[in-house]
Amino acid sequence: MSQGSSQSALRAAGPVAETLLQASGVLVVGGTLIFAGVMVLLVLAVRRRNGTVNTRRWLIGGGLVFPTVVLAALFAYSEWHRPPWRPVPPPDALIVGVTGHMWWWEVRYRAPATGAEVVTANEIRIPIGRPVYFGLGSADVIHSFWVPSLGGKMDMLPGRVQHLQLQADRPGTWRGQCAEYCGEQHARMALHVVAEEPAAFDAWLAAQARPAAVSPTSSPASSPDIERGREAFLAHRCNACHTVRGVSEESRLGPDLTHVGSRLHLGAGTVANEPAQLAAWVAHTQQLKPGARMPSSGERIGEADLQRIAAWLAQLK
C-alpha cells in the first residue's frame, strides 16, 4: 500500500462505506450472541444428561420461530440501511466510466465546458460531497472494482456495463484493488481514488481536458533535453501504444499519457510516479510487472533517450 493512502473497509469515508460498516458490525455482534447462546445450551445439555427435554418445544422454538424472527429482523434492517444503488444516476451525480484491462484501469470523464471526453488511467479523482455514478466494464476478462473505504464492490464484465454509486465525504486518497482474480498480475491491479474539494476537482478536470503542452517553453523545467524527450518518444514509437493528446493520438492500446506527470503512481499502483521510477518503469517493465503488455525497453532505448523520455513525460501535468 502506498504511503498516504488507505485500503480498509474499517475506515469508512463515505455514506455507502459507512452503511456497510454498520451492517457488518450488527452481523458480527448478532452472530457472536447467537454463538454464545448455542454454547451455553451445549454446556447445559452436557451437565443435565438425565433431564427431560421437550423435543417439540425446542424444534418449534429453535428451528422455526427463532430463525424466522432473526431473518425477518435482518431483512428489515438491510432494507432500512440499503445504500442508494439506483438503476439511473441522480441528477447531480458525476458520471465516470471505468474499463478494466489486463492490467490497468481506463478512466473516462466528460468535460462540462465542451462535452469532450477526458481519458486518464489508473487514478480516479472525484469531488467530495457529490454522488459519483460509475459505469463499469471490461475490455478482456472479468475484473472487479472495489475501493474498500468508499464501499461497494462490482464485477466488471466484458460486453456489459455495470453500475455503482459511491460518494466521499472528506478529502483524501484511498487505494482500490481488483477483487476478482484476473490473471498473472492481479495483485498489482490497483488504483487510487483522490477525493478533493469541488473547486479543486473542477480545476483538475478542466486541466485534464486540455491537450499536452507540446513545447513547454514557459515551464521552469523546460530545457532542450525535454524537447528531445518528446522527439525520442516519437522516434522509438512509444506512440504506437500510447496516446498523448496534442502529440500523438493514433493508438489506445495502452494508458493515455497526456497528463501522466500529474498521477500518483505508475503501472496501476506498482511504483510511485517519480522521474527516476518513470525511467526505471520504461526500462524494466517486465521485471517490475511480469506479464504486462508493455515490453521492457532498456535494451532497445539508449540510456540518454530513456532519461529524456522520462523527463518529458514527468512534466506532462
Which strand order does the major sheet show? Answer: 3-2-1-5-8
Strand runs, count = 12
Count of helical segments?
A: 7
SSE order = HHEEEEEEEEEEHHEEHHH
- Provide the low-confidence segments as ranges: none
Q: What is the mean pLDDT?
A: 88
Radius of gyration: 26 Å
Morphology call? elongated
Give a structural overview:
It is a single chain. With 317 residues, this protein is an alpha+beta fold. 34% of the residues lie in helices and 21% in strands. It has 7 helices and 12 strands. The strands form 4 sheets. A 5-stranded mixed sheet has the order 3-2-1-5-8. A hairpin with a 2-residue loop joins strand 1 and strand 2. The protein is elongated, with a radius of gyration of 26 Å. The relative contact order is 0.13.
